[in-house]
From TrEMBL:
GO molecular function: copper ion binding; primary methylamine oxidase activity; quinone binding
GO cellular component: a single term: plasma membrane
EC id: 1.4.3.-
Post-translational modifications: Topaquinone (TPQ) is generated by copper-dependent autoxidation of a specific tyrosyl residue.
Native organism: Terfezia boudieri ATCC MYA-4762
Name assigned to this protein: Amine oxidase
Protein family per UniProt: Belongs to the copper/topaquinone oxidase family.
Top-level EC class as recorded in UniProt: oxidoreductase
Cofactor(s) demanded: Cu cation
Ranges where the Copper amine oxidase N2-terminal domain occurs: 77-139
Sequence ranges assigned to domain DUF1965 in this UniProt record: 233-300
Active site: 385 (proton acceptor), 476 (schiff-base intermediate with substrate)
Domain of life: Eukaryota
InterPro entries (alphabetical): Cu_Am_ox_TPQ-bd (IPR049948), Cu_amine_oxidase (IPR000269), Cu_amine_oxidase_C (IPR015798), Cu_amine_oxidase_C_sf (IPR036460), Cu_amine_oxidase_N-reg (IPR016182), Cu_amine_oxidase_N2 (IPR015800), DUF1965 (IPR015328)
């Protein structure tokens, strides 16, 4: 009996094992088939003019730059010291719009290719970074270089490089100062820094650098290093701050100026040590590390949560056509090219809808985060992320989480320091059901005296094409979506997640909530600037403001005047009036129109730009003493200017290195030029004011940390364009009451 029961168990186990094996194999086969499914391809009508340089072009270019005839005195990056000159980023310069359009829409030849090359000039008492323009490419006898000045309205592409000696300073200057304090930091902070691999503490610099009386000032903060392998150091501020003068290249000119603890300044380590040894010295809370810093699953299990949630499937393959080599896509009347740059990541170009160009360029310009706080680090911390290279932080996406399993994944690559960096699967493209209809209606009528209900219901699926990337810029993760809708709308959406940059809790009550033992969720504003070069039926357009105003009107049919509301139309005449905020109560519409064209009812066709989710933010701080004029785009919600090839970006990577004299001062774009029936560019901000709370631990969640802008057809077609889709139903019904 016992033997037969054992046999039964054995067969039962075998059966279960086989079932698991079958499930595993069939899932693997299914996934493999999914990936192997042929893409629906096409050949782009023209070459992509905005992608990265080709490998051959770059290797020839770099060899050419090293030739002594070019006079650049360059050292290979990997062998370079901080006293050498070396190559940074090399990338394609976008063509001028007129040249590009002549090629894309006319008989013009492919625009000549030029590269932008960033050169770090360390071999100088005053190190600097400058950019040169090299071309034509590929390298030939005609190739020359010249300073790449014309897109920098400072008039010069050179920027002081105060960070040339950063590594030397850290190891030979900062760390000796802090290791001398190790006994105190061990007691006050629970960590030590000796400049060794097993240090339990670290130093955070505040960016950008500051100036006082002509001297370059660097503030540093002690931080804990996470002991659990999670990237949580931005949650581990320790409230001890150091001030250094780092002016010049000669270490003899550098000085340790002061130390700040609990809102008290000490002019030297000795003064601080003396105070520390004095009875009554107030010791603040230490950071407490733990699971709260980790993103692993924690807390009580949720009921039924272990069952697989619903997922989307794509039964018959993609419904978009793709040219992978040219990163060109066609979908439901739209077509566009995807560009890439190391500083800014992906951008979209030559967006056509129903055979007409509607946007020449749509792309990120800058990601700014400005903090505030009682301490010098939180107060001064202001990020302009293009300096770090937003595109270089666009890593591999997670299939099934970041994007549906069935997405098409594309690669990016960029060239920096003489190397090519590949980022596999860092762009995903997919269609998704929005989860609600784009159109629906139910109609019922009671028929006759019998009370029969007769009617119909109509509904149209809301299928959206998404182009998605994620930039994980150190602590924060920004998800960038370009969403295309069946009614011709294009949505630009940003979601934030990842670790907040917290502050030490003490004395920061007015700048954020206290969200852990020693942590303040320091208040900051994200301003994320985009460029939309919108062209409505040609380049010549006008920016219309349609105000919705209260009024009192007399009517022939009424004895008394009536309080009511009506439309008031006006145009933005010139760039002096080109800085705008979103109106209170949304009582104004902003529409880019072509006033040389009328539809059959006499209205001008246009594209409306309108916030679609979240609340667009601009900087609350007036005239930031830290970012100065380096981020003028952050002062309003949106801007309109006349297109110029020399005003191609609202910011620049180099702005962050020299906010006192930024390479691009966006404010200079507004010089009174007419905007009436001109080629217009709209610069709009997404973002938010972020007062982090306990729900931002361990990571900010995207439910509230998001915002989007919709660019939508406005009297552009005679009818809603989503009527073209076959993915709709009309159901007639007849019921008795
Ligand atoms: Cu934030």
């Amino acid at each position: 009996m016992a033997t037969s029961r054992s046999l039964l168990y054995f067969f039962l186990l075998l059966l279960i094992a086989l079932a698991f094996l079958y499930a595993f194999i069939s899932t693997s086969v299914r996934l493999a088939e999914e990936y192997k499914r042929p893409r629906r391809t096409l050949r782009a009508p023209k070459e992509n003019l905005w992608d990265t340089l080709l490998d051959d072009e770059v290797s020839q270019l770099i060899n050419w730059l090293y030739e002594p005839e070019q006079g650049l005195n360059l050292t290979y990056h990997d062998n370079a010291t901080h006293w050498d000159n070396f190559i940074g980023v090399t990338e394609l310069i976008p063509p001028n719009k007129t040249d590009a359009l002549a090629y894309l829409e006319g008989n013009g030849s492919v625009p000549t290719r030029y590269a932008r090359v960033v050169l770090f000039q360390g071999a100088s008492e005053d190190p600097y970074v400058h950019e040169i323009k090299v071309g034509p490419l590929p390298i030939s006898k005609k190739t020359t270089w010249e300073p790449y000045n014309y897109i920098y309205n400072k008039g010069d592409s050179a920027t002081p490089w105060y960070g040339a000696d950063d590594k030397k300073r850290l190891h030979e200057f900062f760390k000796p100062v802090v290791s001398e304090l190790a006994d105190i930091t061990y007691d006050l902070l629970g960590t030590v820094i000796y400049g060794q691999d097993n240090d339990t503490g670290g130093l955070r610099t505040v960016d950008p650098l500051q100036k006082e009386n002509g001297r370059i000032i660097q503030w540093l903060e002690f931080i804990g290093l996470p002991q659990n392998g999670y990237n949580a150091e931005t949650l581990l501020s320790q409230g001890l701050y150091l001030k250094f003068d780092i002016t010049g290249r000669d270490p003899k000119g550098w000085a340790f100026k002061a130390l700040l603890y609990n809102d008290i300044m000490y002019n030297s380590s000795a003064e601080f040590r003396k105070a520390y040894n004095t009875p009554g010295f107030v010791k603040l809370n230490k950071i407490v590390q733990g699971d709260w810093m980790t993103t692993k699953r924690q807390g009580e299990r949720l009921p039924l949560d272990e069952l697989p949630p619903p997922i989307a499937v794509q039964a018959e393959g993609p419904r978009y056509l793709l040219d992978v080599k040219n990163k060109y896509i066609e979908w439901m009347g739209f077509s566009f090219y995807i560009g890439f740059s190391k500083d800014l990541g992906t951008s979209l170009h030559q967006i056509m809808y129903q055979g007409k160009r509607i946007i020449y360029e749509l792309g990120l310009q800058e990601v700014m985060t400005h903090y505030a706080g009682n301490d010098p680090v939180s107060s001064g911390l202001t990020y302009l992320d293009s300096y770090y290279g937003i595109g270089s932080y666009m890593y591999r996406l997670i299939a099934g989480y970041d994007c549906p399993e069935y997405s098409t994944f594309l690669d990016n690559w960029f060239h920096e320091n003489g190397h090519t960096m590949y980022q596999r699967n860092s762009v995903c493209i997919f269609e998704q059901d929005a989860g609600y209809t784009i159109q629906r209606h139910t109609s019922t009528k009671v028929m006759g005296f019998g009370g029969h209900h007769q009617g119909y219901a109509s509904a149209t699926r809301n299928t959206v094409l998404v182009v998605r990337t994620v930039a994980s810029i150190d602590n924060y993760d920004y998800t960038f979506d370009y969403n295309f809708y069946l009614d011709g709308s294009i949505e630009v959406k940003v979601r934030a997640s990842g670790y907040i940059q917290g502050a030490f809790y003490a004395n920061n009550e007015d700048y954020g909530y206290r969200i852990h033992e020693a942590l303040s969720g320091s208040f900051h504003t994200h301003v994320i600037n985009f460029k939309a070069d919108i062209d409505v039926m040609g380049e010549k357009n006008t920016f219309e403001r349609i105000s919705l105003v209260p009024t009192t009107e007399k009517y022939p049919w009424s004895e008394k005047p009536k309080n009511t509301m009506k439309l008031k139309r006006s145009s933005i005449g010139n760039e002096d009036n080109g800085k705008l905020n979103w109106p209170e109560n949304a009582a104004e519409m902003y529409v880019i129109m072509n006033k040389d064209v009328k539809n059959k009812y006499g209205e001008y066709p246009g594209y409306r730009i309108v916030p679609a989710s979240g609340s667009p933010a601009h900087l609350i701080i007036q005239d930031s003493p830290y970012i100065l004029e380096a981020a003028e785009f952050s002062k309003h919600h949106l801007f309109v200017t006349k297109h110029k090839d020399s005003e191609s970006r609202s910011s620049s990577a180099a702005n962050y290195m020299n906010p006192w004299d930024p390479s691009v001062n966006f404010n200079k774009f507004f010089d009174g030029e007419s905007l009436l029936q001109e080629d217009l560019v709209v610069w709009f901000n997404l973002g938010m004011h972020h007062v982090a709370h306990t729900g931002d631990l361990p990571n900010t969640v995207s439910t509230t940390a998001q915002g989007s802008m919709m660019i939508s057809l406005h009297n552009y077609l005679d009818l809603d364009a989503s009527r073209q889709t076959s993915q709709m139903v009309e159901i007639n019904f007849f019921t008795e009451l």
